[in-house]
Design a protein that fits this description.
The complex is a heterodimer of chains A (about 375) and B (about 600).
Chain A lengths: L1 H13 L1 H35 L3 E4 L8 E5 L1 H18 L7 H23 L1 E8 L3 E17 L7 E6 H6 L1 E4 L5 E9 L2 E5 L17 E5 L13 E8 L2 E2 L3 E4 L6 E5 L2 E27 L6 E12 L4 E8 L4 E3 L2 E9 L4 E8 L5 H33 L1
Antiparallel strand pairs in A: 1-2, 3-4, 3-19, 4-5, 4-14, 6-7, 7-10, 8-9, 10-11, 10-12, 13-14, 14-15, 15-16, 17-18, 18-19
Helix pairs in contact in A: 1-3, 2-3, 3-4, 4-6
Chain B lengths: L2 H22 L10 H5 L2 E4 L2 E4 H13 L4 E3 L2 E3 L1 H10 L1 H4 L3 E4 L3 H6 L10 E3 H5 L2 H11 L9 H20 L10 H6 L6 H11 L19 H9 L8 H12 L3 H18 L3 H14 L1 H19 L4 H30 L7 H23 L3 H20 L16 H34 L5 H36 L8 H21 L5 H25 L12 H20 L3 H4 L1 H5 L1
Antiparallel strand pairs in B: 1-2, 3-4, 5-6
Classes of the chains: A alpha+beta (about 375), B mainly alpha (about 600).
């Protein structure tokens, strides 16, 4: 009984039908994902169709979304299983060596996409010429930073990610006597001056009391940014410092002082500090003569890493990124009259997998073609002799 | 095949090549003026040095959709036209070269119904320039895919009129007494404003870089007049240029030709190599290898069709030799582009169409050598013809050898990723074309010929394997390029998705065949569907206007693509139509 069930499952996973159905599903997903990008932006569409196990749809007559189609994750997983089963099922003979390599390479390619989907972190670093930057920042995620600026030599930065703000409640800031009471968090909002006669703001301190905050639906499009805002009440030593409004729309940080320590409060894109720093020495934006067509963008960067006692110059330009300490830095954009360079930063532990896969599949196809060619030549020879 | 037949068939190919050669020869002088020599002058436009002839052809193509036109009983070529535009605008302004198809735009400019009412001269439009500009400026901020038909048409007309206007004011301000007068009145109080206008309106830079300066510092007339007014001396090429201007206006051919020789002398001292580079490009322009190639493919296909009903022993090899001749012309054109541009063959949509056609023709030639049934020739000729037609339509938007934007400026990746993936397109299209031939043959030919059917299926199968290999490798190489330049191997960008769809579809065909789910007919139906997928991924993604790859948007092509998709669905239906259409015919007879 168990044996028949196992063999049935085995049969199911190694069947050609499954391969074809899954490939067709994948094609459908790819088409849907491509079309959806017009409305949802690339990232939104990819998350909805490719990096999910099911494609969910909200029907108007139901209060919860229903899965309507297998997502890229599920199809990819099944296809991987199908591929592994098929690979194991291919005769273990030299004649099939090419097919083994091809299918093994494909398994690695899928694994690479899974690793990228699960673990890849995309951030960016904007540096102005002459500036030194030792952090990368997120494209979309935000944080509430509490910065102790008492010591003129350095700042102590404590930050609360937006996901934690969204949960609300009290958040104790470790290493400081401060506890933040989150009064209200807006994932996306619009700020305006509080009109006279309007109900008063939640805020009681800083510039918050003069500002009205309206909640907006969150955006997922590639070039749109959410304006997160939060009302927080810092409490330290049993004393409240009032309710403050911090928002992505507010430029200058606001500060309060507790027991001789000055703390800045600011909402900003989430940062990750690095054990090394980049200084932008030169940014070049070359155009073709007599035109505005860009020919080249490049950033000359001084990399200073005290822990490695390293200090060297690196030129980052188009198609020539810097791979450093597990992160890869690419020339992505520029601004402020060519004095600001924006590097996109990618951390993907699986970045090598597609390369390995590419080598395996190409090698496999070559081996397979060579074997087939030899066989057909031999057949022709036999025909001639026979 | 007899000895005579063999030579006759090859003579047809040789004749085609001879005709192609005649195209490349320079034309005669116009009214004694060395107009072709004028077209040879190198200039800098769009970031690259090219002959004036290229500017003339591309501008005329943009404005008029053709590289020449009939006016007052004779054909005016691009070089003569641009001379008139630049030096005798009063003549050029009367020539009806602006094609306007949109009835609302025609209504806007309040044109009277003329005999050939879609053609307008600059003089016809000149009293409506303000209105055209106003309407275009309202439409311009709207994203191209969201514009109405009228808005697209008015923006298009404005761009063409503006191009003409710029050309008119590049070497001299239209309506002024000319460049010589400009040189004499260099210190006039109003001269500075005129120099400013010339600088702003200049379409190209004709004055080669001076020794000691940057090697790319070509100047336009306005810039050098301003430098002259500032006491930096007169640019050595300005003087012969002014004489060219004066001689052309005075209708003095001898002085014109002399001034041209002097101009060439100055250019070759200042920028050695530019003149010969320009000359090479002019030969390429004149030869029009892709237009000649598509004509030869067309003739080859017609000859082959005739061969099925008349003298197959003679006409089939003739068609093959014509196809071969077409392929030679096509290959030479492709090679010339590679050399002139210093780039791998595929750099934009236009060149991808040329390369896809070339790949399909070469594959078809190989298939024909292997099977010798005429089908290789037929599908190769059709594929080559169709893709060159597509290329001709894509090439009406200006210079097809434009400079590569920064991220694409990588010959290594253009040569590997782009070429491999384009070969994948060629293969998929050729397999689809063979399948269409199979479908049509099944219905037309009453005799059941299992062997030919099998040969066709084998061809299609082999080409699908080939296409899968190239599209897979090309896609993965593209992923690696993306990893090198954007930091991710795969981002589900529309273009990447399009490439992936081709890979997946070819993989599905092969797996379905290996598993025995489809046989002859099924494989062929699937191969035709491959055409739709390839066309969508090739052009469709450019119409979505999203993603890192969408460098160019096309509006009208959408309907062409839809039409193509529908026609392929019809072919699929024909291919899949019940077998009794062909298999039961013998029973009816009985």
């Amino acid at each position: 009984m168990i044996k028949t069930l196992a063999s049935r499952i085995w049969k199911f996973f190694k069947s050609f039908q499954l391969t074809i159905v899954l490939l067709a599903c994948l094609m459908a997903l790819v088409v849907l994902c491509t079309l959806a990008q017009v409305e949802m932006g690339t990232q939104g569409a990819v998350n909805a169709y490719m990096r999910s196990f099911f494609v969910w749809r909200q029907f108007s007559f139901l209060s919860f979304p229903l899965p309507v189609f297998p997502g890229g994750g599920l199809v990819g997983l099944l296809l991987t299983l199908n591929l592994i089963a098929k690979t194991l099922d291919i005769q273990r003979s030299w004649a099939k060596a090419g097919m083994w390599l091809v299918h093994a390479g494909l398994v690695i390619l899928f694994a690479g996409e899974f690793v990228a989907g699960m673990m890849q972190v995309d951030t960016n670093m904007s540096i102005e010429v002459g500036q030194t930057v030792n952090y990368v920042q997120s494209y979309k995620n935000m944080e509430l930073a509490v910065i102790d600026t008492t010591d003129p030599a350095w700042d102590e930065v404590y930050s609360v990610p937006d996901t934690l703000l969204a949960k609300g409640g009290s958040i104790a800031i470790p290493g400081t006597p401060i506890t933040l009471n989150v009064k209200r968090y807006y994932p996306n909002s619009e700020l305006s001056n509080l009109p006279p006669g309007a109900p008063p703001s939640l805020a009681t301190a800083g510039i918050g009391p003069g500002i009205s905050v309206v909640e907006r639906p969150t955006v997922t499009n590639d070039n749109e940014l959410n304006t997160g805002s939060v009302f927080v009440e810092p409490v330290a030593g049993g004393r409240s410092y009032g309710i403050w409004l911090a928002s992505m729309a507010l430029g200058a940080p606001q500060s309060f002082t507790h027991e001789g320590h000055t703390y800045l409060l600011t909402m900003r894109l989430r940062r990750q500090y690095l054990p090394y720093a980049f200084t932008l020495k030169q940014f070049r934006h070359d155009v073709y003569p007599g035109t505005e067509i860009p020919k080249n963008f490049s950033s000359l960067v001084q990399v200073v890493n005290p822990s490695q006692k390293e200090s060297r110059e690196v030129l980052i330009y188009m198609n020539q990124p810097l791979r450093y300490e597990g992160k890869t830095f690419y020339q992505a954009s520029f601004g402020k009259n060519d004095t600001l360079s924006i590097l996109s930063v990618v951390e993907n532990p699986g970045w090598l997998l597609p390369y390995v896969s590419c080598v395996l599949v190409s090698l496999g196809l070559l081996v397979h073609f060579a074997i087939v060619l030899r066989r057909s030549l031999k057949r022709r020879q036999d025909k001639k002799e026979g | 095949m007899t000895f005579v037949q063999k030579y006759l068939s090859w003579a047809a190919g040789a004749l085609a090549l001879l005709i192609a050669l005649i195209f490349a020869l320079p034309g005669g002088k116009v009214r004694g003026f060395d107009v072709a020599g004028f077209g040879n002058i190198p200039i800098l436009e769009g970031g690259r040095v090219k002959p004036l002839d290229s500017v003339a052809r591309n501008s005329l193509l943009v404005i008029h959709s053709r590289q020449g036109f009939r006016y007052e009983g004779r054909t005016i070529g691009p070089d003569e036209w641009i001379l008139d535009v630049m030096f005798r605008p009063q003549v050029a302004d009367q020539q009806p070269i602006f094609v306007i198809d949109d009835p609302d735009v025609i209504g806007l400019i309040g044109a009277q119904q003329k005999q050939n009412r879609n053609y307008f001269s600059f003089a016809d439009l000149s009293s409506h320039l303000e209105e055209i500009q106003k309407q275009a400026q309202t439409a311009q901020p709207i994203a191209p895919q969201k514009r109405t038909r009228f808005q697209s048409a008015i923006v298009n007309l404005f761009d063409r009129v503006y191009l003409y206007y710029k050309l008119r004011n590049t070497l001299q301000l239209a309506g002024s007494p000319g460049l010589g007068w400009e040189l004499q009145s260099i210190s006039d109080p109003e001269a500075s404003a005129r120099h400013q206008d010339l600088m702003q309106l200049s379409q190209f830079r004709i004055l080669p870089p001076l020794p000691g300066g940057s090697p790319d510092a070509w100047k336009n007339v306005g810039e050098s007049l301003r430098a002259m007014a500032a006491g930096q001396g007169v640019h050595p090429a300005l003087v012969p240029l002014a004489r060219l201007n004066a001689a052309y206006v005075a209708n003095d051919a001898a002085s014109f030709n002399q001034a041209l020789a002097d101009m060439n002398g100055v250019v070759s001292t200042l920028k050695p190599g530019a003149l010969s580079h320009a000359t090479n490009e002019v030969v390429f322009n004149r030869a029009q290898p892709f237009f000649v190639g598509l004509s030869i493919y067309f003739v080859a296909f017609i000859v082959l069709c005739i061969s099925w009903i008349w003298k197959p022993e003679l006409l089939r090899p003739t068609a093959y030799s014509l196809l071969f001749a077409g392929a030679i012309v096509h290959t030479l054109g492709l090679a010339a582009r590679i050399i002139l541009q210093g780039r791998p063959p595929v750099t934009n949509l236009y060149s991808s169409a040329i390369f896809v056609g070339w790949g399909a023709v070469i594959l078809g030639l190989i298939v024909e050598r292997m099977y010798r049934k005429g089908f290789g020739t037929a599908v190769a000729a059709v594929a080559g013809f169709a893709s060159l037609i597509v290329a001709q339509n894509l090439g009406t938007e200006g210079d097809t050898m434009e400079m590569m934007r920064a991220v694409l400026d990588s010959n290594f990746w253009l040569a590997t990723h782009v070429v491999t993936i384009t070969i994948g397109y060629s293969g998929t299209f050729l397999a689809g074309a063979i399948a269409i031939a199979y479908a049509i043959r099944k219905h037309i030919v009453s005799k059941v010929d299992v062997e030919t059917d099998k040969a066709l299926v084998d061809m299609a199968y082999g080409i699908i394997c080939f296409a899968l290999f190239f599209s897979f490798v090309g896609t993965v190489l593209g992923g690696i390029w993306a990893d090198q330049s954007w930091g991710r191997f795969w981002g589900w960008d529309p273009k990447e998705n399009g490439a992936l769809l081709i890979v997946l579809w070819n993989a599905i065909i092969l797996h379905a065949r290996w598993a025995g789910y489809v046989r002859e007919r099924g494989t062929m139906v699937m191969a035709i569907f491959g055409n739709i997928i390839t066309a969508c991924s090739w052009f469709g993604v450019n119409m979505l206007g999203v993603g890192l790859h969408s460098y160019g948007f096309m509006d009208q092509a959408f309907y062409a693509l839809m039409g193509f998709g529908l026609s392929q669905l019809v072919f699929m239906a024909i291919c899949y139509a019940p077998p009794r259409f062909w298999e039961q015919k013998p029973h009816h007879k009985a």
